[in-house]
Design goal:
The complex is a heterodimer of chains A (about 100) and B (about 180). Chain A has about 100 residues and is of the alpha+beta class. In chain A, about 15% of the residues lie in helices and about 35% in strands. In chain A, strands 3-4-5-6 form a 4-stranded antiparallel β-sheet, with no helix packed on it. Chain B has 2 domains: about 5-15 and about 100-175, Probable tRNA modification gtpase trme, domain 1 (Gyrase A, domain 2, 2-Layer Sandwich); about 20-95, Heterotetrameric sarcosine oxidase (Alpha-Beta Plaits, 2-Layer Sandwich), CATH 3.30.70.1520. The chains are: A alpha+beta (about 100), B alpha+beta (about 180).
Chain lengths: ~100, ~180
């Protein structure tokens, strides 16, 4: 079972407490009616589908209930780090320094 | 739901008598006002509990608390929070009847809980609580003593959880 660190609980807990919530850092356009159909489609459906480190949203639904972001390697399924919602995606350099 | 106590092997499983329960959502910055209204300093860290007299509070999330008080004081507490609502924005929901609480005690109570809980129960300190899952049903686990737990679960999930608890209890008693 995967162990996920919740940045709000400051605790590492089993995957069963969490729910996956799609790719992170996708901001809803401020005025959707001004968008072309193609732009709206891209916002709704087009995702990076990265092979490697992926920024994604998770929710600690059976715990504190909060949404947060995580960097997970889609190849190895390993969590690189987790961080609170609203914070920028950590750069690889700062991650190396923290280790 | 029939309230009962079953004492089998090393674990006693009982339906705990009802209490007044509240779910409080409030900005952490306003915690002092809420503590004053409830008459107990609310804990600030997720998982922590605070107890004074017959009132208890546990922090379940960054801005969420579970409050317990005697049933007779439910109205008083609702009024106390209503009085501060104008100045301090918050949400206080009475959930007394939403949950059924099971009490587990005995030397193997923690072991019994591990049959349904994926978390490391040893990390929950006495007096603290944690919201987690018990076989996919969301529960709040309260640790009252080293081998004494309370498991609060939504009423609709209670038959499922109770059936699993009694089965596990019988398995432990039979030496499985």
């Amino acid at each position: 079972m995967l162990l996920i660190n919740c940045p709000y609980c400051d605790d590492t807990l089993p995957e069963l407490e969490f729910a996956y919530a799609g790719e992170a850092h996708i901001a809803r356009p401020a005025d959707p009616s001004k968008l072309s159909d193609e732009e709206w489609r891209d916002f709704l459906f087009i995702r990076t589908n990265v092979k490697g480190v992926h920024a994604e949203r998770w929710r600690h639904i059976n715990g504190c209930g909060r949404f947060f972001n995580a960097l997970r390697d889609t190849v190895s399924d390993q969590f690189v780090t987790t961080y609170k919602a609203g914070e920028p995606r950590p750069e690889p350099k700062t991650l190396e320094a923290a280790e | 739901m029939t309230a009962h106590v079953s004492n089998l092997g090393d674990v006693t499983l009982a339906v705990v008598p009802p209490v007044a329960r509240f779910n409080l959502r409030i900005a952490p910055g306003d915690l002092k006002a809420a503590s004053k209204a409830f008459g107990l300093d609310l804990p600030a860290k997720v998982g922590q509990g605070a107890h004074e007299g017959d009132r208890s509070a546990w922090c379940l999330g960054p801005d969420e608390w579970l409050l317990h008080a005697p049933e007779a004081e439910q109205g008083t507490i609702v009024d106390a929070f209503a009085a501060i609502r104008e100045k301090v924005a918050h949400s206080l929901v009475v959930i007394s009847d939403r949950e059924v609480a099971y009490g587990l005690s005995g030397p193997r109570a923690t072991e019994l809980l591990t049959t349904g809980c994926p978390i490391d129960l040893g990390r929950i300190k006495v007096g603290n609580a944690k919201r987690t899952v018990f076989d996919y049903a969301q529960v709040v686990l309260i640790r009252d003593a080293e081998d004494e737990w309370r498991l609060e679960v939504w009423r609709s999930f209670a038959p499922h959880v109770e059936a699993l608890l009694t089965t596990a209890q019988r398995e432990l008693a039979s030496g499985l």
